[in-house]
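Many introductory courses stop at the sequence. We go one step further.
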Amino acid sequence: MNGYIETFRGDVATWEVDATEHFTVAYYYEKFEAATWRYLHEAGVDPAAARTIAALTHYKAELRNRDIYRVETALIDGGDTPTIAHKLFNDETGALCTAMQQTLAGVSLPGPAVAWDGDAREDRSIPGDEAKWVPSLRNMARPEEADWVGNLSLPGYIHRFSTANSFIMADFGMTPDYMTKSRVGLSTFEFQLIFHEQVKPGDMIDIESCIAQLGGSSVRFCHRMRNAATGADIASLSQFGVQLDLDARRPSRIADDLRERAEALLNAS
């Protein structure tokens, strides 16, 4: 692809597969974080000076245990808050699995930029305090989760949002036991992430979550991450996904009784 350079190659390790039996979303971000470091280094920019302030990710095709993949990266919007794009391909089939647009602060990339040919950002409303927000995570950043410059790494954020999903889903009946017995899981197809401030090891983190949209098989969750000591916003995530039939590997309709409980949460304001 003109303007793109290869920035990462890897394979899906067994421990990187989640309960939905495919590559865990947090590990995509681990690889994109590494791809960003290499891209900035090769662009002559100090990668330690960069921080991510927004990320838009579309998950298009599954990666599963032992699949091999590569990441290609390009600048799609230059300037003092540049946006770079990552495309992750299944290296065996050539299929585009995931595309991420990552906006950075702290570095300048003047160009030339490549025209973005992927999904555009869709504006999605974020619920306010009137929504039914469920406590969905209480923990702290650990030293081994820090990136190369000592801040919480990108996968450290995503692992926590994934845990938050488990709690908001359990709140309307999609519990771990239910999903195991029903052979269903949550398959994400879009992340809209905003980062407000950085996290250091030892910082205490809280997340609250709510349901923002509900479809036949689809659901959108919103999560807000805060510093438990100061109350400051750390990050927010709008996550769209579908209930996935784990055997058919296709979306499946959310059961009526779960839907009623989810609608009650959605309309609790």
